[in-house]
Design brief:
- The complex is a heterodimer of chains A (about 350) and B (about 60).
- Chain A is mainly β and about 350 residues long.
- Chain A is about 5% helix and about 60% strand.
- Chain A has a 19-stranded mixed barrel.
- Chain B contains two helices and no strands.
- The chains are: A mainly beta (about 350), B mainly alpha (about 60).
- At the A-B interface, strand 13, strand 14 and strand 15 of A face helix 2 of B.
- Chain A: GO terms for molecular function: protein transmembrane transporter activity.
- Chain A: It is found in: Mitochondrion outer membrane.
- Chain A: It is a multi-pass membrane protein.
Chain lengths: ~350, ~60
């Protein structure tokens, strides 16, 4: 429904464990996502005219890709096999990580990753440029460069190779206005062949709670071209976020509810007109910071039940993740175990 | 006596309705059925999230 990677159906990038705490002075982007932008803080103690203007000031609605993110973060991530990750901060700007993955279903692999964070500060705990890359034992590379060009414009370049062959290369620019966000992404452009994908997003705050927007995907190959459009609406309440994305390919609705500091609940509904299939998922997140414990559980309409348990073994710089998924209809069981050091 | 006979005549109609409703709700090959049933499950999930998730895990346990 959305981004470039989905439209061009490449091999998905490997999941990045998020159990490690960043080294001091380092900002590690969550997986391969954009670092968060600090919100605009309205001025206080102004005269009545300026106070009126401050009251009617619409907030920036955030990035288009982050509309469903809050709800997706509640659900457990499926993991299989054993994973050992060692993170080591070499300086305030540079960090390396080693990941060993042992699997019964896929090939076991080793990945070496690096993260570089520059010294251009744009906000609290936000430093640019950010360069993240990792390579596995077969020579496949994933790399991202994120840079804040100005106070409102952020750019990102991403590359993905399978051994020596480039399978994905894309660049995007995001402009954050006072009450809107606009993004343009160029995916796999090939001037010689005349192929590529252009994705444009626009999200506008209508009221302090309601944001509406749209996405346009244009793809072109020799002898073929097409465009897909979808619309999105996001409503933010005091402790909930409801988002709906609708397009010719289908619909995606999500509801995120923060019941209290320990419990968050998410409900997702997806319908694909192309695949002629629908599904609904219910997930919850239990966060017990006093026990350094986080538990995620989910159940969906395809009779798949999953759970994730993450425990930080303080005072050691150690984090343990246990994961299991059970597909009752197909009688399949999958479990995973991960240790993160550093 | 028309009362019991009318009841007997309407109960096969009700039974037929239940049978067709059961067949509709369990027919996984019907996209429209999947859409409606999952939409109902989504609405039920949202209701559960809004109304049944307000328990406090850190509250002190009651003393017996």
């Amino acid at each position: 429904m959305g981004g470039v990677l989905a439209a061009s159906s490449p091999n998905p990038p490997p999941p990045v464990t998020s159990g490690a705490a960043p080294a001091p002075g380092l900002t590690v982007p969550p997986g391969f996502g954009m670092p968060p932008v600090s919100p605009v803080i309205p001025s206080t103690g102004a005269d009545p005219g300026q106070q009126q203007e401050a009251r009617t000031h619409l907030p920036n609605p955030g990035a288009f890709d982050e509309c469903h993110r809050k709800c997706k973060e509640v659900f457990p991530i499926q993991m299989e096999g054993v994973r050992l990750t060692v993170n080591k901060g070499l300086s305030n700007h540079f960090q390396v990580n080693h990941t060993l993955m042992l699997s019964t279903m896929d090939d076991s692999s080793y990945r070496f990753g690096t993260t570089y964070v520059g010294s251009k500060q744009m906000g609290p705990a936000e430093f640019f440029p950010v360069m993240v890359g990792d390579m596995d034992n077969s020579g496949s590379l994933n790399a991202q460069i994120i840079h804040q060009i100005s106070s409102r414009i952020r750019s990102k370049f991403a590359f993905q190779t399978q051994q020596q062959k480039f399978v994905n290369w894309q660049g995007d620019a995001e402009f954050r206005g006072e009450d809107f966000t606009a993004t343009v992404t160029f995916g796999n452009p090939d001037v010689l062949v005349g192929s590529g994908i252009i994705v444009s997003h626009y999200l506008q705050s209508i009221t302090p709670s309601l944001a509406l927007g749209g996405e346009l995907v244009y793809h072109r190959r020799p002898g073929e071209e097409g465009a897909v459009m979808s619309l999105v609406g996001k409503y933010t309440g005091s402790n909930y976020i409801a988002t709906l994305t609708m397009g010719s390919a289908g619909a995606h609705a999500s509801y995120y509810h923060k019941a209290n500091d320990q419990l968050q609940v998410g409900v997702e509904y997806e319908a694909s007109a192309r695949m002629q299939d629908t599904s609904v998922s219910f997930g919850y997140l239990l966060d017990v910071p006093k026990a350094n414990l986080q538990f995620k559980g989910s159940i969906d309409s395809n009779w798949v039940v999953g759970a994730n348990l993450e425990k930080k073994l303080l005072p050691l710089p150690l984090s343990l993740v246990l994961c299991s998924f059970l597909n009752h209809r197909k009688n399949k069981f999958q479990c995973g175990f991960s240790v993160t050091i550093g | 006596m028309t009362g019991p006979e009318s009841k007997k005549a309407s109960s096969p109609g009700v039974m037929n309705w239940f049978r067709s409703a059961y067949r509709f709700s369990t027919d996984r090959n019907d996209f429209r059925r999947n859409l409606l049933v999952n939409l109902g499950l989504f609405v039920a999930g949202v209701w559960v999230a809004r109304n049944l998730s307000d328990f406090d895990l850190m509250s002190p346990q009651p003393v017996a």
